[in-house]
């Protein structure tokens, strides 16, 4: 399902004790969404289940961040990220996300499990200009090369700081 929501400038803030939980299959289709997810995003359960998780992707989020996330979790690694999401009504909300592989009883990957919580404002302030530059790079690179080009830029920035992605994100 292609998201056709027009973003607003209104931010919805998670409460410190709220956790957004979702599960997807291996293709990123939502198989579970908790009540906090439904409440903050504005989507009903029947609108979320079976939908691609990118139904809540905000256009301010660089595709390179999601390329990195998918690369990590498809390799069985845990990924942390600060993500700006889009509500059904166009509002937005920031989360600190933790995404891991979900395994079936036989130990085989069956999907992905994500828990998101309220991020620190200082972390949002740090990633926002990075994401803005990644988006600029993506526009220059064109659709086919956008995610790779912005991810390469981000990785070069982190290499200068001698940090890997998770170490950087967890330091914020």
Helix content: 25-40%
User: How do the strands of the widest beta sheet line up side by side?
Assistant: 2-1-5-4-3
Number of strands: 5
Classification by helices and strands: alpha+beta
Q: List low-pLDDT spans.
A: none
* Basic shape: globular
Separation of termini? 33 Å
In the CATH scheme, the class would be Alpha Beta
CATH architecture: 2-Layer Sandwich
* Strand-residue proportion: 15-25%
Any idea how many domains?
1
Question: What does this 3D model show about the protein?
Answer:
The protein has 172 residues and is α+β, with helices and mostly antiparallel strands. It has one domain: PAS domain (Beta-Lactamase), CATH 3.30.450. It contains six helices and five strands. The chain has helices spanning 35-41, 45-48, 63-74, 121-141, 146-160, 165-171, and strands at residues 19-24, 30-33, 79-86, 92-103, 109-117. It has a five-stranded antiparallel sheet. Helix 3 crosses helix 5 and helix 4 crosses helix 5. The longest helix has 21 residues, at 121-141. The chain is globular. The termini are far apart.
Furnish the topology, listing elements before pairings.
Layout: E1 19-24, E2 30-33, H1 35-41, H2 45-48, H3 63-74, E3 79-86, E4 92-103, E5 109-117, H4 121-141, H5 146-160, H6 165-171
Antiparallel strand pairs: 1-2, 1-5, 3-4, 4-5
